[in-house]
Design goal:
0% strand, single chain
Amino acid sequence: MDTSFYAMLANFIQTIIIIAIAIYVIAVIANWKIFEKAGEPGWKSLIPIYNFYIMFKVVGMKNWFWIVFCFSLISNILSNVSQPSLLAASSTNSSLNSFAHIVSIISDFVSLVAFVTYSWRLSKVFGHGNGFFIGLLLFPNLFWLILAFGKSTYDIRRLQK
């Protein structure tokens, strides 16, 4: 192949990387703004795992965070431990593989329920209805931008109505 193909490929990859960085920066700014609207310092949105804990707290699901986090952690550990190595016979790990698979399915289900519950509660605490909730489920990044830069305000008491 000639060099023009590789030059086009390099330009394409550079463009994709620039777009990905731009999307990431916009998402970080939106996250920061949502944290501030919810009365939390924006810098907390930059710390991995802790930012999820804070967002679960913002929507009144602090205990759910620990359930999802523990299931995900256990699932990841089991999936790494249960992978048969090239030298070991896979039959020796069959019971561990089955257990890891079951835990993984449970973890996925718990994560899905938590995401749906979290999205519904996020919609409510910012004063939006079921349409916005569906939007958060289907297009979360777009609707996070709407939350961050729109006129919606945070009020945890809206969950009790």
